[in-house]
Amino acid sequence: MKKFLLIVSALVLYGQGSMAQSLEKMQWFNEPEQWSIENKTLRMFVTPQSDYWRIAHYGFTVDDAPFYYTTYGGEFEVKVKVKGDYTHRFDQAGLMLRIDHENYIKAGIEFVDGKFNLSTVVTHKTSDWSVIPLDKSVPYIWIKAVRRLDAVEVFYSYDDVEYTMMRTAWLQDNTPVKVGLMAASPDGEGFYVTFEDFKVKHLPDSRRLEWLHKNAQ
Fold first, then answer.
1. Which CATH number among 3.20.20.10, 2.60.120.200, 3.40.50.300, 2.60.40.10 corresponds to the domain 2-214?
2. Tell me: the pLDDT tens digits for 185-217?
């Protein structure tokens, strides 16, 4: 049992020390014309009339919005602070976890009919959309996603201290995931958005920890 606790402690410490993600080492899918990285902050002008959506309700499929990502296997926690000059209907920005063009989750803030909403789109061949209306505009929002086994929990926060869950969704486990920063302007001419303090923290594999516990010497 002592050996097991030492292994778990080492794994936890490793995860805590792996929180900083180098933006410069990430890569683009649908690179926008204007973007920059400075002081661990990504700023971009979102490509006009771009989005991620598949089939459901609207009858079209698009996969052309900017997405700046790195790839992770296993279980992890990711979060980012998002600020945007949302102007047009459906202007949006936040996190995306993506296996491929038929399987992804995007979550963040979205401007719809003059109101701000916390928005999550879950896509498995077809897309669905859930929103939490906000009673006022906010200068920024924190979005966090936690991937555990075959589930992703999505949270929001106004202060990076107290987080509230906004969605739980299925995502295939044991599969590498592209995780990063997404923004779209489906109905508009683009807008400026800033992503600050993007962090990914490795989480020790739940099944491995369970095996170690059962097989502790």
1. 2.60.120.200
2. 999 999 999 999 999 999 999 889 889 989 987
